[in-house]
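Usage

Read records sequentially. Each one opens with the input sequence:
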Amino acid sequence: MANHSRTKPENLSLAKLAPQDFIAPNFRLHELTRSEIASRLGVDNAFPGDRELRAAVHLARKVLQPLRDTFGGFTPNSVFRSQALERVLKRKPSGWLSTSQHTRACACDIEIVGKSTLELAQWAADNLPDYDQIICECYDPDEGPNSGWVHLSLKPPEQGENRKQLLSYIRDMSGGQWLYVPGLRASVG
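and closes with the structure output:
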């Protein structure tokens, strides 16, 4: 178990890392590809290459680590998702390719017990110096403050500018449909 938390992402390589190695002060490599569904169904969720590894390390250091520093231990719901895992999750045929930022290791989904999902999204918007998207997903105050999760994404420097986009994916109570709406909020209206 080596500590690579200070190694520049561009100097990291899958060939030189073990799953238990630290890639950030409080994050190990295996946490970035962990998926209960992939494990249960035997779906390969390994990074396909160093580009995804380096993007995930950048995300861990700039997004996940500040969250862990502030809120203590938590396990991300999802960081990297292979194309195979995306197809299983979204029930798509074998040739389908996802455009999700998870497949490029630029996104994570998180929940923190005891912290309202909407408050967590707002904390991220107020405290993370850079992000591409913060999406409060499936939050329904009628189901309690921890309903849903927060999607956070951050592009690595070589992938262009981050949009700093704030969205909510919430149910429109008038029609029952789930919609993306601008801003962080609990309701469409």
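Summary fields computed downstream for this record:
- The chain has a mean pLDDT of 94.
- The longest helix spans residues 50-71.
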